[in-house]
Amino acid sequence: MSRDAAPLYAICEIFVSIQGEASWTGRPMIFIRAWGCPLSCSWCDEPLHRDPAARRMMSGDEILDAVRQVAPGLFSVVLTGGEPLALPGLSGLVARLKEAGYWVAMESSGLGGALPDPMVDWLTLSPKTPLSEAIYQSASEIKYVVGGEAGFPSHILERAERHDNVWVQPRAMGDRPDPKAVAHCVEMTLRAKGRLRLSLQTHKYIGVR
Ligand code: SF4
User: What is the pTM for the complete model shown?
Assistant: First the structure.
């Protein structure tokens, strides 16, 4: 297939920032945000991926050019969303980025399509629905977004007993976490006795995306 015939990807923004969540907190990364998501979480804090005006259809070449321009010399990218798994031809995009020398991370709910081949270098799985065991086994880290409801979600603790990099992250309320969700996550983290870690959206505390 010629590059001209390569798929176009629905993207809503490409920008450089500081990763604020979970294992790679503090690492500068180039964020490639996919437009669209098969889910409609009520707490979603990324409305841009639903804005029709923000949708740009970009070729792999155009994405690579934008990534190079936004942060020359930085070779860490994260595919996020929206839902990057739902991008048709995702494997081709991951291959292009890796061929160009990028370390490629992806954040996904696990829904929307198959995992890419080649596989990304780092998969953050943020489950919102039941998923196959295979995708859990592919995850580099698992990050549960937790609300302020009472009770201890036993499936999170069970997952933490089988995977060594599991996080709970309080749902956002505007540009800060919901205080009830924070309290719930702290309680869960303490009760899990070291199996769970607390992820905060630290980028929001320093006023960056
Ligand atoms: S899966 Fe993520 S991007 Fe999609 S609606 Fe839920 S919170 Fe938003």
Answer: 0.94
Side chain identity at residue 73, one-letter code: G
Q: What is the band of 12 on the pLDDT scale with cuts at 50, 70, 90?
A: very high
Q: Is the CB of 81 under 6 A from ligand 1?
A: yes
- Element (H or E) spanning 92, and its range? helix 90-99
Q: Which domain holds residue 112?
A: 3-205
Per the structure, the count of domains in the chain is 1
Q: Mean pLDDT for the chain?
A: 94
The closest-lying atom of ligand 1 relative to the alpha carbon of residue 128 is 1
Question: For 78-122, what is each residue's pLDDT tens digit?
Answer: 999 999 999 999 999 999 999 999 999 999 999 999 999 999 999
Ligand 1 mutation target, pool 44, 107, 169, most atoms within 8 A of CB = 44
48 alpha carbon – ligand 1 mean position (Å)? 11
Beta strands (DSSP E) in 96-183 are 103-108, 122-125, 141-146, 166-170, 172-173, 176-177
* Ligand 1 centroid distance, CA of 40 (Å): 6
The CATH number of whichever domain residue 183 belongs to comes to: 3.20.20.70
